[in-house]
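A quick aside before the break. I want you to see a complete sequence-to-structure record at least once, exactly as it would be stored in a machine-readable document. Don't worry about memorizing anything.
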Amino acid sequence: MRFWRSKRRRHHDRRASEGEVVLGQEMARAIEREESHRAATGAITSPLAGVAYDPWSGALDLHRFVESPVDTAVGEFAASCEKLGTEAEAGEVRAALSMDDFYTLLAFARRAALASLQGRSSPSLHHGLVALTAIDQERVDLRDVSVAAELLAWAMARAGVDHAIEFQTASRRCEPGVADTLSHIANRSANELEPGMWRPVQTAAGPILAEDYFERFEPAIDLIGIAIAVRDVIEADAYRVSSLTVATELPSVWLTPTDPGAIERALERVRACVSVRGELDPTAASTARDQQLLVFLAEAGSTDDARLIAGAAVPAESHKALGLADGSVCCVVIANSIVAGVPAFERDGSLERFEEPLRSVLEQSRAKG
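That is the input. The structure line, written in tokens, reads:
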């Protein structure tokens, strides 16, 4: 495995539980502006009406590339934006777009970066950038624009494209907020660009973009390869994996140790940790959106540490848990409801159905190593 380390820490709120969803101030402002904009403009038909990626299909994932017909529709929209003759025309198109449309455009831009990383021609980096020019930065979390833009610029530089020219040209077609973001990135040298909150990782199936929490990540084994195999196990059940995160921590909040001091020391010695997040199939329960499944894969400092950590993964009042260890690798599975008062989908003992397939994954990985 090859890893490209980013020097910059991720600029977002870290939740120790990795489960809480907190509506940020920037997003709250964006929603207010969207509501005001809709009230002022009335019922305008969006050129992207009915065009949206299906999250359940995996089209929003960057830990794999899933083909989507939405790419064609958004690519055609981007091409039409380039043909607009005046700023007024561009403004009319932008005004007709909704906040949901903007997030479709942001997803398209991120998919363009992953496509380039994998040697795909579509969606193109150029159209990914053009898509960003149609966004009204006032009606999205402004950080989402800057993060997607830098990822695109990094992908361009990696592909040998002069990002400065592309971004400077694109900035002339934007509203002031996005224009400023693109101009700022255009003024940075190629070697200053980074993929931001993602880490490019070479896997057996090709390069992917994994979320990066920038903690210690010095695996001596193919930990991400194991995580991808775990992803397949989870998705053979009632869950879909929505994110794969590297260089994360295994929060002690999920562990119930008999010796807290020993666990803390064992966690401090962890060489690397990857987490996989699963979302419950909406058809499995009416409360599917309130459920989460987390799997932490950690390369511990020793076999004893791995067993100690796995042994502390026991059910508690707040969550269900399952712990496995094989050599220096431990696997901790957590399931709970993230909404107070909503019962958890997983019941006492139900996670045990994952034990055999997960143990098989760990044993096979050790045999390959």
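Two observations worth writing down. The beta strands are 198-203, 206-212, 239-246, 272-280, 291-299, 320-326, 329-337. The two ends are 12 Å apart (CA to CA). We'll return to this after the break.
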